Amino acid sequence: MKIYTKTGDVGTTGLFGGGRVPKDDVRIECLGALDEANSTLGLLRVKLGAAHAWQPNLHQIQKDLMDLMSHVARPSDSKIINRNPLPADGAAVCEAWIDELESQMKSPSDYFLLPGGNEVSALCHVVRTQMRRAERRLVSLMATDAVDPAIAAYVNRLSDLFFTLARAEMDQAGVAEEKWQLFLYKRFRNSTDSPHPDQPAA
Q: What is the domain count for the chain?
């Protein structure tokens, strides 16, 4: 079977369960953002090496993202059943790993950080921002069609996870974090000042 079908030459693509939409349809934008994040995650895994302790969890996340994308690709009114498992507990799994990583680090997560540190940490930040973009596209899709809430929760938590992984890598490597500002809620907790309109949201 040839990899090219020529069916997309006029700017449309097929959905799971049939039907075609323009390649800039919000559903396709969402799928593209998730695919991009998954590809960068693959690069991160290569950089880590096969024996790295994160590999089993990251491998599972990549498989989850493939399953998740198949559900995003299926309109809610499709008559075809998606037999790929929906990672319904993905957010909880991320939370457990985040808690484990934070318990092992020398300092709490209190600051916005300049992305970077070393190559692995920087790649974690790239995945984090790509997950955030996928989440924005997902929210746009949710305004037009029903999406399982577990999908949005998982994507949201994945960005938190990769922020934590970036910090964990720097902690393990002994690289100092480049801090920008305290998280907004931390500043309000420690100050009697009123919020200023140019302060960033957490």
A: 1
pTM equals 0.82
The tokens describing 65, both together, are: 């993202």
Alpha helices in 24-148 (DSSP H): 26-48, 55-72, 90-104, 119-142
d(C-alpha 92, C-alpha 85), whole Å: 16
Tokens of 30: 């969402």
Residues 6+ apart with CB under 8 A from 145: 27, 75, 76
- Residue 182 near residue 110 (C-beta atoms within 8 A): yes
- CATH code, 128: 1.20.1200.10
- 43-95 tens-digit pLDDT: 999 999 999 999 999 999 999 999 999 999 999 888 888 899 998 899 999 99
- Domain that includes residue 31, residue range: 21-76+84-189
